[in-house]
Amino acid sequence: MFRCLLRRIAATLVFAAAIPNLAACASTSPKPAFKEVSALVEQRTGGRRLYWNNGTLEDTEVAKAIARMLEHEMSEDVAVQIALLNNRKLLGTYEELGIAQADVVQAGLLRNPTFGASVRLGDRQGPLPTETLGVTQDFLSVLTLAARKKIANRRLEATKLRVADAVLETARNTKVAYVHAQAAEQMVAMRRTILEAAEASIELARGQHEAGNLNDFELATQEGQYEAVRLELTRAETEAIEAREELNRELGLWGKQLGWRIRGRVAEIPTSEPPLESLETLAIDQRLDLAAAKLESSALEKSLAMTRGFRWLGGLDVGLTADRHGGEGGGWDFEPNASIELPIFDQRQAVIARLEAEVRQSHFRIRAIAVDIRSEVRALRARLTLSRGVLERYQKVLVPLQERIVTLAQEQYNAMLLGVFQLLQAKQAEINAYSAFIDAARSYWVARADLERAVGGRLPPPQGHPPAPSAPSGSPAPQKPSSPQQPQSPSSHEHHHGAS
Q1: DSSP helix/strand/coil, 466
Q2: Which among 204, 210, 271, 336 has the fewest CB atoms less than 10 Å away?
Q3: Which intervals carry biased composition (Pro residues) (predicted)?
Q4: Residue among 293, 330, 305, 335 at smallest CA distance from 318
């Protein structure tokens, strides 16, 4: 019987020694996990690809591809692609996959066995062994190996979703930065055009003042207007610089890469919006942060179950001791042994209580995320709809109305029925309407990017594809401030007045 027990213990120890070798075969490379993340992102973003810069020859090819993309006018899609390839924060986020993959491998490893040896000095002919060798293995780690690997794998799956969610966040931030840069450049172009007209106007006004056709009050009023136009241009240029740097940060560009060009006008809005009624359900199904939270909660539940299952086995060690009697030439006696931790004081009740609390906390977190998602979608859907309404109101009503007011004011000014101050007020109101129109276009596209982010992927395509509307005749075209819809400079009226 003793020999039978000895064989079983020995077989267990051999098995325990073999498992680490088998576990060591598990790769620590996170490339398979990254490949899955890349496939998920391609599906959610319409084919945009990811690349993990990890010091290979492919890094050079990716850098060359980015340089080629920067040589041409950069569209929003190209900007997002560059950000996904080159954003340093995002590249750092990919390392989370390496950490989680390493945890999976570590979970599949057993604790190393403990080896001990002793030699008795002095009387070597007594009853005590002269040499003792022993090896001890933590057997509990063998029993919990499968459960620990499942927990680590679920956390790895959650990490993949969190990394993919970070990619979508980067795509959203890039879209917003791109729209900000576009609107800022469009605003600068409009302000420069107004300034050029104001410069011509003020020169004409000064000439008329010297000729006695313009009094001091009228000249001072126009000079004040001219200085205000100059300041507005400076303010617009400052905002354009900040918006450009915001986009540089998202794209991860610096040095010679900063000479990129974009289309300096905000894109036209689609003719219709996608059906927005089912977006809440779509977001609940698609949001990666919610799915990651569920997986993390599942991992906690598994951890709790494992702890409960082994709560009475706080420590279980098995080993084998070999004793040799009589010094050199003596025989060996083998003695298997085992030790178990007695759960007298610590029955892991505190660990279990902590895990139970964490599980309950994770459930509340899942519900909170779901509630937040639904609320975000409703708010952003309303914001998108209202932004579209505001934009169309500016385009179809307010700006054309301001243009008509300016036209009528100019006619009355030329007929000497209106003063220059009232005419300048009408002009300023027209310019403000243009500015508000550009800002409304920017707000619309930001709301759309935010809604896509809240839904967790691209919005459904709009119903029908009617031709894009053209700017109404006589209304300001937001993408082209120098168009005929742009408000005229006050100086032209002064010229008419002086000629009348």
Answers
A1: coil
A2: 210
A3: 459-470
A4: 335
**Pairwise CA distance, residues 139 & 137, whole Å:** 6
Question: Whose structure tokens read 């560059």?
Answer: 82
Give 465's Cβ-side CA count (13 Å radius): 2
- Write out pLDDT tens, residues 291-332: 999 999 999 999 999 999 998 887 888 999 998 876 666 788
Per the rule left: phi > 0, alpha: psi between -120 and 50, beta: everything else, 397 is alpha
Hey, which residues does 246 pair with through a beta bridge?
Answer: none
Residue 63 neighbours by CB distance under 10 Å: 14
CA distance 194 to 488: 8
Six-digit token pair at 452?
């896509």
CA 9 to each of CA 12, 140, 332: distance values in angstroms, whole numbers, following the listed order:
5, 14, 17
Is 218 in contact with 183 (CB distance < 8 Å)? no
Q: What are phi and psi for residue 386, nearest 5 degrees?
A: -70, -40
3-class secondary structure, 115: strand
Please indicate whether residue 490 or residue 366 has the higher confidence score (pLDDT). Answer: 366
Q: How far apart are CA 55 and CA 316, in angstroms?
A: 45
Please state, as a whole number, how many other Cβ atoms lie within 10 Å of the Cβ of residue 35. Answer: 12
The pair of three-digit structure tokens given for residue 334, joined into one six-digit string? 């083998």
* Calpha distance 378→401 (Å, rounded): 33
Residue in this structure with the two tokens 């031709």, named with its chain if needed: 467
Percent of the chain with pLDDT strictly greater than 70: 85
Which tokens sit at 69? 């993309």
CA pair distance 254, 88, nearest whole angstrom: 12
Residue 461 pLDDT grade (very low, low, confident, very high; cuts 50, 70, 90): low
Find how far residue 153's CA is from the centre of its chain: 24
Q: What is the mean pLDDT of the chain?
A: 84
Measure the CA–CA gap between 32 and 91, rounded to whole angstroms: 16
Cut 0.85: pTM above it = no
Q: Which of 110, 109, 111, 107 has the alpha carbon at shortest distance from 148?
A: 107
DSSP state of 482: T
Q: φ and ψ at 25, to 5 degrees? A: -70, -20
Helix (H/G/I), strand (E/B), else coil: 464: coil
Cross-strand pairs, 319: 136, 337
Interatomic CA distance for residues 260 and 248, integer angstroms: 10
Q: 2-11, 36-45, 200-209: which has the minimum mean pLDDT?
A: 2-11
Give the tens place of pLDDT for each residue, 140-175. Answer: 888 899 999 999 999 999 999 999 999 999 999 999
- Distance, in Å, from the CA atom of 77 to the CA atom of 174, rounded to the nearest integer, reads 10
